[in-house]
Design brief:
Layout lengths: L2 H21 L6 H19 L3 H19 L6 H18 L4 H27 L1 H5 L1 H9 L6 H4 L5 H17 L7 H22 L3 H20 L4
Length: 229
């Protein structure tokens, strides 16, 4: 995958992610509605691809207003990932063409890979995750709309332990997918399915689009690291 194609895919997916986020505020207070309506308009401009460079600059400046309004990334990890993608993408468009441009975009791919690996490593260090107790509590006590038949799995420690280690193993081993393009595509498909399942079961819908928006950077990075002989 070429850098230009990876950038374009990232632009489209990021614009969709921000549009979803903006739609959540259309029924809110007037100030928030105006703020996110502006973001929605800028995202529509980014989707066209006509003035991507300037649309990204405008979105980056606008993001400062959003950060000021909410005293930081108010929705945690998904907002931070969205800003990381936005800033890396903007730099990759505006830095002098060559190593600096590639480094800015590669940094995004590295950070996404680390987001999976570190998440898995933290779980390994946590006894509650190793035993399955943490996942059991998610199913048993979560306020999110988990289906009743899934709540019924909570009292089954073996199932919870197996599921916990499946998640841990996938996250910790994720960087190895960079060794082969087919393996990486399969790993990204599994990761996307994981995020979609979390959105359906636990309401973590923002993570889907923002993490998908970062996947082109990983595919491009892999093509650079494992160049054909």
């Amino acid at each position: 995958m070429s850098l230009e194609l990876a950038q374009r895919f990232t632009e489209i997916l990021l614009a969709l992610a921000f549009l979803q986020q903006s739609a959540e505020h259309m029924s809110g207070p007037n100030a928030a509605r105006a703020l996110f309506l502006t973001r929605a308009v800028l995202c529509l401009a980014l989707l066209t691809g006509v003035y991507s460079d300037w649309s990204l600059v405008a979105l980056s400046i606008h993001s400062i207003a959003v950060l000021h309004r909410y005293n930081g990334p108010y929705n945690g990890g998904s907002d931070r990932m969205g800003l990381l993608i936005l800033y890396c993408l903007t730099l990759s468009h505006w830095l002098p063409e060559g190593p600096l441009t590639q480094t800015a975009f590669a940094y995004l791919g590295v950070q996404v890979i680390l987001s999976y690996f570190i998440s898995g490593w933290v779980k390994i260090l946590n006894p509650a995750w190793r035993s399955g107790a943490a996942l059991r509590d998610v199913f048993a006590f979560s306020a999110y709309p988990v289906a009743e038949n899934l709540r019924a799995l909570a009292p089954h420690p073996r199932a919870m332990r197996t599921a916990s280690w499946a998640v841990i193993g996938f996250e910790v081993l994720f960087p190895l997918a960079l060794l082969n393009q087919t393996l990486l595509i399969a790993a990204l498909a599994c990761a996307a399915a994981f995020h979609i399942a979390n959105a359906c079961l636990f309401g973590l819908n923002r993570f889907v689009w923002f993490w998908l928006a970062a996947y082109p950077s990983i595919l491009w990075l892999q093509s650079r690291l494992i160049a054909p002989a």
